[in-house]
Design goal:
370 residues, mainly alpha
């Protein structure tokens, strides 16, 4: 019987099939993996607070008690914030939601052109031409609105999954170091353990820097948006400021969506000094992207701006908004693993070279004289 495949080819095909199968399984459970990944991020966010509480007399060096006290403290802080800021935020959000159908109707009917044009001195011919353009593309506008509503509904449907994040984070906070040690102990050789420990430590520092950078950027964005929009008496200022700050979590696409939403609301409500809002958004984007973000990300993630842009673009192509958000930490993780592998390979070559140098040199054989 003729052998169709040799052993080497069979092993290669089997390896490819295993990788394809694992990839298919991971794609099928991608939602669960994303929830676990965000739980890890949330655990990194709380780790400094839990460590400080654990070393204080409040927790008596108990890890579980420190985690419980951290959750209670965060809950109380959020409760106080909701008590003082919540009523105004709820009022703005409710007003925005209630007025949205009328605003969208003004857009699809073309009435917004006359409302906005009359306040800015547009000519009758210009307003009439723009109204005709909007009416001719009414169906496309309705389709865009429908897609946005479907995306919002899907996000709200996934909210139950994201409610598991604090629960899973508590397990990572309690036993994360034990999980890492079990993974390291799975290797026999000392150099392999050292290599894996270096990867885990570098990833730990990178993720800590990434989460810290995200929180700082969001806080800066919320403060900047709130201050500027309230100063300009922009409608629904607090709701838009909070939404714009949250969108800072998504690199590149988030800030663009926030700016488009704010300008869109200003256009729909015929906000007169809209040029001032556009000027603020442009200035803030320059300040955030070229002053604040490089300083913060440079310390934590240590990723070149060109690499970050390429990662964000590829993440958007592969995974949409979620891919854009996860692109930077994944790219930074790949950089960390590659650098640790290079260090490990260099040390292995040095060790092999040292062993060869320690071997006794072969002595030349003497020939007997006849």
């Amino acid at each position: 019987m003729v052998q169709l495949l040799d052993s080497r080819t069979a092993r290669i095909l089997l390896t490819i099939c295993v990788f394809v199968g694992v990839g298919a399984v991971l794609y099928g459970i991608r939602r669960t993996l994303v929830v676990f990944l965000f739980a890890i991020f949330f655990a990194y966010l709380l780790e400094p607070l839990v460590t400080r509480i654990q070393s204080s007399p409040l927790a008596r060096h108990s890890r579980g008690l420190a985690i419980a006290e951290a959750y209670i403290g965060i809950g109380c802080a959020l409760g106080l914030l909701a008590f003082f800021v919540g009523p105004l935020l709820v009022k703005d959000t409710r007003a925005l939601v209630e007025s949205m159908p009328n605003l969208l109707e003004n857009v699809t009917s073309g009435k917004i052109v006359w409302q906005f044009g009359s306040k800015h001195g547009w000519t009758f011919e210009t307003q009439l031409r723009l109204e005709e353009i909007i009416q001719n593309h009414r169906q496309e506008i309705l389709d865009w609105i429908g897609q946005g509503g479907a995306a919002a509904a899907q996000f709200l449907a996934d909210g139950l999954w994201f409610a598991l994040i604090p629960i899973l984070s508590a397990f990572f906070l309690a036993d994360g170091r034990r999980f890492a040690q079990v993974l390291i102990d799975g290797f026999d050789r000392r150099d392999q353990k050292r290599f894996l420990r270096a990867i885990i430590n570098d990833l730990d520092r990178m993720l800590t820097g990434f989460i810290f950078a995200q929180i700082v950027l969001v806080a800066c964005a919320v403060v900047a948006y709130s201050s500027a929009l309230l100063l300009l008496h922009f409608p629904y200022a607090l709701a838009l400021a909070l939404g714009g700050g949250i969108m800072e979590f998504v690199p590149v696409a988030g800030p663009l969506m926030a700016a488009a939403t704010i300008v869109g609301v200003g256009f729909l409500t015929a906000f007169k000094p809209l040029w001032a809002v556009v000027l603020f958004l442009g200035a803030w984007r320059l300040c955030q992207d070229y002053v604040i973000s490089p300083r913060i990300y440079g310390r934590g993630v240590r990723l070149h701006p060109l690499a970050a842009i390429a990662a964000v673009l590829m993440g958007g192509e592969l995974g949409g908004i979620l891919g854009i958000y996860l692109a930077i930490p994944l790219a930074a993780a790949i950089r960390v693993i590659w650098r640790c592998w290079q260090d490990y390979a260099d040390k292995m070559r040095e060790a092999e070279s040292a062993q060869l140098q320690q071997l006794p040199a072969a002595r030349p054989r003497k020939t007997a004289l006849r």
